[in-house]
Q: What sequence folds into this?
């Protein structure tokens, strides 16, 4: 029999399985907003499989993709209140709660995935996870998706090309400032409304990873894409703390080990998926693709420099210093 943790209203059911030397079956619901054939979608599926194997089926990760359970605007509250046990929101979406994480949103802060991984495996990663200080929430890992690209209905080559257009962003003060600095407007909307909003023209452009642009067919409702790799998009994997504390030691170890394996795997695989999504979009010829040149990149970086000054104090000295040491 499956004994979930207090998924319905009322006091959580306590059990002393460990005392008895027995683990009871636990169901952990993992809700996310992207398609299954994306880095996050596949990472969740792999994690679920590993947990099942490592616990002989005694911990079941039940996956809800495509915002079928909660969308990005309400998944965090659902996690905190125990309506769902695991989520993996993009770092940007938590950056107002945990300002240290704004470092991940700074434009051109990281050149490539290797730099991000080095940062996360070192002191910078430790500082960021220490910043997750909400009650009833525990951070487990950062999963890569990759770097963001710009899409719009006008070519985006020079930094001025975005002027006066309305871009959809994930909620995040740095992302807001980034577009404002470029003379554009930015509105945050739920990811699952994005296709319709681009199609209807409520917003004229957006930034996202290649795998998201491809799997949600955003390239079919946008005319131009610039592969700029200007910002990083990764996911903070979170678990409800009450759920975590109720797991036996063996179950916690199994989850940690499955998480470590999945994190290592997605680091390799996300890059491949994004490369494949680009190749597919090139082959379909539905969107004009521009690869940002080094010269253009330098000009964009210069233009976006004020964003760094605006946020460095909010992010905090220790995080900024660790980051500076890493990137020089
Ligand atoms: C977005 O909202 O654009 C992304 O965070 C979606 C996702 O989770 O990859």
A:
């Amino acid at each position: 029999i499956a004994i979930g943790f207090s998924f319905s209203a009322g006091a959580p059911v306590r059990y002393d399985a460990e005392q008895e030397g027995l683990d009871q079956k636990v169901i952990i619901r993992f809700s996310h907003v992207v398609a299954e054939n994306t880095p996050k979608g596949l990472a969740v599926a792999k994690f679920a499989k590993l947990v099942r194997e490592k616990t002989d089926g005694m911990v079941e990760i039940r996956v809800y993709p495509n915002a079928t359970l909660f969308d990005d605007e309400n998944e965090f509250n659902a996690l905190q209140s125990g309506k769902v046990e695991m989520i993996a929101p993009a770092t940007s979406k938590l950056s107002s709660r945990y300002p240290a994480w704004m470092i991940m949103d700074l434009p051109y802060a990281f050149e490539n995935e290797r730099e991000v991984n080095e940062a996360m495996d070192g002191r910078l990663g430790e500082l960021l996870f220490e910043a997750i200080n909400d009650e009833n929430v525990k951070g487990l890992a950062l999963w890569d998706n990759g770097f963001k690209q710009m899409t719009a209905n006008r070519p985006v080559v020079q930094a001025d090309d975005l002027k006066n257009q309305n871009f959809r962003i994930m909620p995040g003060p740095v992302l807001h400032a980034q577009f404002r600095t470029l003379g554009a407007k930015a509105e945050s909307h739920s990811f699952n409304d994005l296709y319709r909003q681009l199609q209807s023209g409520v917003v004229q452009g957006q930034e996202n990873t290649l795998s998201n642009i491809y799997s949600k067919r955003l390239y079919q409702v946008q005319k131009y894409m610039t592969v700029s790799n200007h910002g990083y998009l990764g996911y903070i994997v979170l678990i409800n703390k009450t759920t975590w504390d109720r797991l036996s030691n063996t179950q916690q170890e199994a989850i940690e080990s499955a998480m470590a394996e999945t994190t290592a795997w997605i680091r390799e695989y996300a890059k491949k998926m994004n490369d494949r999504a680009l190749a597919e979009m090139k082959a379909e010829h539905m969107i004009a693709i521009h690869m940002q040149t080094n010269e253009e990149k330098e000009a964009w970086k210069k233009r976006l420099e004020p964003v760094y000054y605006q946020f460095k104090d909010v992010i905090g000295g220790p995080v900024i210093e660790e980051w500076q040491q890493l990137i020089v």
Q: What stands out?
A: The pocket of (2S)-2-hydroxybutanedioic acid is lined by residues 33-34, 40, 72, 90, 145, 170, 191, 208, 212 (CB under 6 Å). The radius of gyration is 20 Å. The longest helix spans residues 249-284. Confidence is low (pLDDT under 50) at residues 1-19.
